[in-house]
Amino acid sequence: MRVVILGGGESGVGAAYLAKAKGFDVFLSDMGMIRENYKKELDELGVDYEDGKHSEEKILNADWIIKSPGIPKKAEMILKIQEKGIRLSSEIEFASEFTDAKIIAITGSNGKTTTTSLIYYILKEDGFNVGLGGNIGKSFAKQVAEENFDYYVLEVSSFQLDDIQNFRPYISLLLNLSKDHLDQYNYNYEEYALAKFRIAENQEANNFFIYNKDDEMSKSLLGKLDLKVTKVPFSLSERLEKGAFSIDENFVVNVNDGFTMNIDELSLLGKHNVANSLAASIAGKLLEISNQSIRNSLMTFQAVEHRLEPVSEINGVKFINDSKATNVNATYFALESMKQPVVWIVGGKDKGNDYTEIEDLVKRKVKAIVCLGIDNQKIIDFFKGKKTQIYDTSSMQQAVEVSKSVAEKGDIVLLSPCCASFDLFNGYEDRGNQFKNEVLKSEKPMAIS
Predict the structure, then answer these.
(1) Is 442 annotated for ligand binding?
(2) Is residue 353 situated within a structural domain?
(3) In angstroms, what CA-CA distances link 123 with 226, 297, 307?
(4) Residue 427 known to bind ligand
(5) What is the rounded average pLDDT of the residues 214-228?
(6) What is the pLDDT of residues 96-119, one digit of tens each?
(7) Cα–Cα 20 to 30 A to 254, which of 40, 89, 132, 312?
(8) Has 110 been labeled as part of a binding site?
């Protein structure tokens, strides 16, 4: 079998490892330039590859093509592949064909990384032989090639789900839905939401689908879709006899023997993280992990980097890195969890954002807006007249300097951009790391918990 891999990043090189391990004829192609460390791995594997171009004659003779989630669906080469009827899969689809491990797969517009990391932590703390992959950690395919895990916890994006055929997790989670990546889905919210629901389309009655009963789009689509899977809900507004819920200070999991705790015992802050913890707890109970073990993990888990990550406290001002908030809904949750006045750093590559969702929160909680991007006009125009302090910056250094000059003792400087990072940065990690570096550069910080 000839396997062609499009994209030479973590998932593409991981797919090359697995394809090579299975004895396939492997070729990898990347329109961009492949990083030197990945080139070295491909050379050591003996995989033929190219970068800076896609050679049609080397690609369109494939039996199976594995596509990086970063390649747009409407890219010219993808359309040609589809015209020829060649099987086109994501790395998660490809890898799942070669493992009998149980898969716990997590998707949603927000909270994927935190919930994936939390479920992995719960399993690891309980002694499970488990791997972490998908959009987080090492390539899933590479782990299937080299490891022998009994379970995988995978963070899965809509772009990866676009390219599945048989992918069937033992447990799937759809945390929430909000308008994101609409530029890739014809600016149609339902089309994007249906891509997320593909996580459950191949599941059967002996599998589990954990979903958010408070999410309006999820409720609407569940009424239309014919899913065979066993559904388990969670809610922040409704008491559930089956599933999990949190009302007032109570955190209640009614799955198998179930347990309760107080939300003040959770290590993660914010209402959205209560929801994430409910979803993770359900997964733990479905895997028959003890109540005490789950409870201990919920109390000791540490927040993931770039997601409401405390950086430091300088002269009484707290600095928080939420660079992973690349859409309006993610920033909504961040602002909602703030208890002190906020100097808000926002901006980047707009994905069709509608800021009305956070307008009221900004009015109530934000004292100054620091725009960070090449073109900040849309944000400035929206909030003009609603906030008097709006600053226009085009570098992280400038944004942090302005924020420090505006913030007073007792304030929070929050980087929660609402936007993708690719106008000024190499990704949300680069953006978050630059923020941390600039914050810590000139003044001696105090550690904050």
Answers:
(1) no
(2) yes
(3) 31, 9, 21
(4) no
(5) 94
(6) 999 999 999 999 988 899 999 999
(7) 132
(8) yes
CATH code where residue 62 lies = 3.40.50.720
Nearest-angstrom CA–CA distance, 234 and 218: 12
pLDDT bin (cut points 50, 70, 90) of residue 435 is very high
Model-level pTM? 0.79
- Is 242 inside a domain boundary? yes
The beta strand positions in 96-238, using DSSP E, are 102-107, 130-134, 151-155, 171-174, 208-212, 230-235
Is 276 in the same domain as 167? yes
pLDDT at residue 443 in the model:
60
Is 112 known to sit in a ligand binding site? yes
Ramachandran area for residue 256 (φ above 0: left; ψ -120 to 50: alpha; else beta): left
Q: Is 250 helix (H, G, I), strand (E, B) or coil?
A: strand
113 annotated ligand binder: yes
Q: Is 102 annotated as a binding residue?
A: no
Answer for the pair 272, 333: CB distance below 8 angstroms, yes or no. Answer: yes
| Whole-number Å distance between alpha carbons of 300 and 268 | 9
Can you tell me the mean pLDDT for 420-435? 93
- For residue 28 the two structure tokens come to 């990898």
